[in-house]
Design a protein that fits this description.
By secondary structure, the chain is α+β, with helices and mostly antiparallel strands. 27% of the residues lie in helices and 27% in strands.
């Protein structure tokens, strides 16, 4: 993770902690505010994001389905988490797909359940994960970051 505190850090840390407690800790996690905002056509702004990576060597990855692992992606301003399988050298097999089950601030326990399903190579069930109520402070911090970036 990053050395400096970013506004979404408490949420991503809570998700990472929940995954670790469930025995599904990613091989690595990157939290950033420096990626170009791919939702802004001007290409002149950055976005908050987090990338959680499970390699093909992770014991929870079903390598018959995801030989080289997968990634889970959180981006602001996207409204949902996203995921994509990885190729051998770490690039993605395709553009990340949205996970309608996981809203931007889904409860970390719900993220764990979806990750467990993805790692097993199974279909993600339909529905909506509960909101993480501690996200209110994170949302305020993200809004302040967004205002400062403009």
């Amino acid at each position: 993770m990053t050395d400096r505190t970013l506004p979404h850090n408490p949420y991503i840390t809570a998700v990472d902690d929940a995954l670790t407690a469930a025995g599904l800790a990613p091989d690595w996690t990157q939290i950033s505010d420096s990626e170009t905002n791919r939702y802004d056509a001007s290409g002149l702004t950055t976005q908050l994001d987090a990338l959680l990576v499970w390699t093909g060597g992770h014991p929870a990855v079903n390598t018959e389905v995801h030989e080289d692992g997968l990634v889970l992606l959180w981006e602001h301003p996207a409204e949902q988490w996203q995921w994509a399988p990885r190729k051998a050298h770490g690039e993605l097999e395709h553009e990340p797909e949205f996970l309608p089950t996981l809203g931007r601030y889904a409860d970390p326990a719900a993220v764990v359940a979806v990750v467990r399903t993805l790692l097993a190579g199974e279909e993600v069930p339909e529905g909506h994960a509960p909101y993480w109520h501690e996200a209110d402070a994170v949302k305020r911090a993200v809004a302040a970051w967004e205002t400062a970036e403009q």
